[in-house]
Here is the input.
Amino acid sequence: MKGVNAILEPGMLVRHPGQPDWGLGQVQSSIGGRITVNFEHAGKVVIDGAQVELQLVFEA
Here is the structure.
């Protein structure tokens, strides 16, 4: 993993750049390149960190 995905930790807030309608997401875990995020409008989603670079959100 590279970029922001490499530093993601549980509790951090993110957005999926290709799915803005999913809303704000909270990182649940990041293990071996697989990032589990709980999004407002999509629920729990497992993302391949090598394929999608999430956008870190500093203020909700």
